[in-house]
Hints:
By secondary structure, the chain is an alpha/beta fold. The strands form four sheets. Strands 1-7-8-6-5-2-3-4 form an eight-stranded mixed β-sheet, sandwiched between helices. Strands 18-17-19-20-22-21 form a six-stranded mixed β-sheet, sandwiched between helices. It has a four-stranded antiparallel β-sheet with strand order 10-11-9-12. Strand 15 (444-452) and strand 16 form a beta hairpin. Helix 1 crosses helix 9 (234-257). The protein starts with a helix and ends in a 5-residue tail after the last helix.
Amino acid sequence: MDEIQNTLSLLSKVYSGLESSEWFTGDGKAAEAFSEATAGTHTWYTTGKRSVHQPQLESLSSIAKHLVQNELHRGSKVTQLVELGAGKGLLGSIIQKMTSIPLTSVERRDVCANYDQCSNVTRVKSDLSEVELSTLIASDEKALAIAKHFCGPASDSAITTFITTPQVSLSILAPCCHPQITWSTYSNVPYLESLGFTEDHLPLLLDLLILSKYTKGISEKDCRRWKDLKKLPRDVVYTAGRQVRRIIEEGRARKLRENGFSEVIVVKYAPDSVTPDNLVIIAKRSKDDGFCKGICDTGKPIVPKTGVVFHCNGDTSVSNRLTEYLLELRSKQTVSTILQTVAIHTIKYSGDTLSNIIVIEGDPTCIVKLLAYNPLVLRTVDMLMPFRENDVLNSDSDCEDVCYKAFQNYIAEGCTYRICTVPRPLEQTLYSKVSCASPSVFTHLMFALVWKGRCDSDMRLLHSCMPEKDFNLREWRDEACTLPSWVKSKTDKAVHFFIVELSNRYLQPVPGSVAVIIFDDKKNPAVKTACETLETVFKMKSVCLFKDEASTADLTPTTPVQFVLFILGMGSPAEGVAKVLKNTHLPEGTPIVGQLKLGVQSRGRRALERALGPWKEPSAPFKDSWISHFVTDKETERAVISYYAPGKVDATSTAPSGG
Length: 659
């Protein structure tokens, strides 16, 4: 334990002298470029981890755009982009679309479905240790080199490459996978030694870094090398891990600074809950007195100054899925100016319990107007908190006084106020102090959220005041005001919201067109709800078919069938759907959608691939099938989206047999 305590003391001492700037700036063009580059693909980027990838890509690409524009402002020009460890090339593709600068992507693996398969892009297959980067860039070019999430020693190799390639005048390096670092491969061992660290310290430092990522506690197995780590408070481990990461990146930054790069800065570019590896090293070779200050002044803080906070009912997965949906919305040109950034944050929402919240940056009135009555928000959000101020708190004891003073500044003559706070006990205290406050008769709403991050020093008060006409809280909380009259039971709600989400996100129903609905049988309670929702909300006609009855419906191309919706029980319904549709003459390419009720099998990528298997069978009349996790799905449910392809079956049945 003494060794651990001594290391923690040394970390704290060293870290106190390091500064970290923040740059979490969304860029509407980056959001649009992300959607454009990923259009038609169904990978983890868009259907599973969009809430992780898009905020990072937006922030890093906005940094790149800033560097390019800064050079133009100074009478210079970046003429070449180089992405190292490009993978499928999504980041480079987004930056290339935003800047129109030629791109060279370097990647050692054979990868398919590249995002950078377009003009003005050169792809080089090579390991970084085997390629001479200077040979890929003309001698008179001025290059911006980018490397996102370069694992362990690869980040140190990238630093060496930047230093030895004179054409690289600007660089953006976002390291990750720090546990792979070794003493022999780290690029600036002398820096660590100057701080008092030795090779013997490295295993403990890296273990602290790993454990700082854990949000659900630390087990004995996690601490097998250092059992005493389990005795440390979670906040201490988290803080120590953050300090280790910052010190490691400082050493790399100083290596660049000592070898030809005059301006170098380490910046936090995303919330910890988006990625714990959220530090980026930004460097410029030539002297530029305003470079670092320009980045500090241009970038926005991780926790924005104005916006709206959502807390979702249910598990972490719901927050992730709603964030993905909001990021989809943000990719639309008319929405990106309202939803300036969207990201998940982890805070101590109730006592010391960590919980995910969604923070949307922008004008709170505009955000509330756009989203408060969105059906997917209504279905999943149990707390909506607008804020226009973001004040730092020094301790728990400050909360009541700071909040009371903030609310006093909002009070105007002739107005009455409803108080809404998180945590709730603060609400009752403030009601006893604010004379013009009432929970039942009010003209305005005053909001306050006590923000407690994973680190005790990260405390702040988000607060605002809003006229009730801008946000009718009573109506928002009353389902009778926000749900159609025929939606009453849990089953009704599930079916109604599934159809609404499907229609809003994927199919855009055409009034007057036909939706075919396949049920288990006529006793299914969802029959009436599904038909009412389609016919009343979307003005569509419904044709009901049943799994155990031979269909006599003739859905020829003259019938404007827009999609087929199946509402069936457990298991994969592909065979049942194919059987029902066999004699309907449904047009080729008609979308077929519905839920897969997978139970415990829903967790895990391989389990989902198995569930999708029957839809991809050569004998199945479906094509381009994929699985999504809708916002309105339960944790054990998934949505399948496919397209009718009877011609595929005909081709299979008439194919010549082998002999």
